[in-house]
C-alpha cells in the first residue's frame, strides 16, 4: 500500500498506526513531501517498509516497488531462515539504493550477458552465453553470479540422472 503523510481527512501517521494494529495489516510504502526526520523515524517505527520523499522520478518509484516485490516473494517462502536469509531480506529493502545504482551502471560485458539472457527463449547456461559472446565460461559465470545477486536474473537448477545440477539463468520477473 502506498501512503502519504499529508492526507485531507487524517494524518498519514495516524492511519499507518491504526492499519498496523489491525489483523492482516498491509505493508506500507510512505510517499510524502514530509521531510522532518522525526516524521520519517516515526513512519519506520510504525512499520513503513520504505519512505520515498517527494518529488521523485518514476525510476525511483519503480525501483522501490521492484525491491518490495523481490522482498515479498522471498519473505513469503516457507521454511526456516538462517542468518544469510535474514540479511538478504533486510538488504532487499534497506540496501536497495546501492543495488539499484549497481543495476543502472552495468559494465559493457555484464550488459551483453544480460542481453543474451533476455533474448533467450528459455533459461540459458554459462557455456551457451560464453560461446555466443566469444568470452570464457568462468568470466561469464562471474557476471551471471553478480547479476543474480543484484536480482536481475534468476538461477534455475536442472537436475539430470547423475552428477551436479546444470545452472540455467533467465531474466528475473521484476526486470
- The strand order across the widest sheet is 1-2-3
CATH topology of the domain at 106-175: Arc Repressor Mutant, subunit A
Q: What's the helix-strand series?
A: EHEHEHHHHHHEE
User: Please, what is the CATH homologous superfamily of the domain at 106-175?
Assistant: Winged helix-like DNA-binding domain superfamily/Winged helix DNA-binding domain
Q: What shape does the CA trace take? A: elongated
List segments where confidence is low: pLDDT < 50 over at least 5 consecutive residues: 96-102
* Amino- and carboxy-terminal Cα gap: 21 Å
Task: Give the class from helix and strand content and strand pairing.
Answer: alpha/beta
Quaternary: single chain
Strand composition percent: 5-15%
- The counted number of beta strands is 5
Tell me the CATH architecture of the domain at 106-175.
Orthogonal Bundle
**CATH class bucket of the domain at 106-175:** Mainly Alpha
Mean pLDDT: 84
Helical content (DSSP H or I, runs of 4+): 40-55%
Helix count, DSSP H or I runs of 4 or more residues: 8
**Most strands sheet:** 3 strands, parallel
User: What is the radius of gyration computed over CA atoms, rounded to a whole number of angstroms?
Assistant: 20 Å
Give a quick summary of the entry.
With 175 residues, the protein is of the alpha/beta class. Helix content is 52%, strand content 14%. The protein has a three-stranded parallel beta sheet, sandwiched between helices.
Amino acid at each position: 500500500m502506498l501512503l502519504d503523510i499529508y492526507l485531507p481527512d487524517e494524518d498519514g501517521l495516524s492511519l499507518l498506526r491504526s492499519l498496523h494494529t489491525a489483523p492482516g495489516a498491509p505493508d506500507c510504502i510512505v510517499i510524502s513531501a514530509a521531510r522532518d526526520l522525526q516524521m520519517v523515524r516515526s513512519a519506520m517505527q510504525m512499520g513503513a517498509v520504505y519512505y520515498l520523499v517527494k518529488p521523485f522520478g518514476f525510476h525511483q518509484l519503480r525501483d522501490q516497488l521492484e525491491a518490495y516485490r523481490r522482498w515479498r516473494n522471498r519473505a513469503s517462502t516457507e521454511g526456516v531462515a538462517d542468518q544469510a536469509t535474514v540479511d538478504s531480506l533486510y538488504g532487499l529493502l534497506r540496501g536497495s539504493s546501492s543495488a539499484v545504482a549497481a543495476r543502472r551502471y552495468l559494465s559493457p560485458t555484464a550488459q551483453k550477458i544480460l542481453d543474451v539472457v533476455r533474448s533467450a527463449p528459455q533459461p540459458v547456461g554459462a557455456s551457451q552465453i560464453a560461446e555466443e559472446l566469444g568470452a570464457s565460461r568462468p568470466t561469464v559465470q562471474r557476471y551471471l553470479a553478480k547479476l543474480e545477486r543484484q536480482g536481475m536474473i534468476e538461477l534455475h537448477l536442472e537436475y539430470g540422472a547423475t552428477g551436479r545440477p546444470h545452472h540455467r539463468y533467465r531474466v528475473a520477473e521484476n526486470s
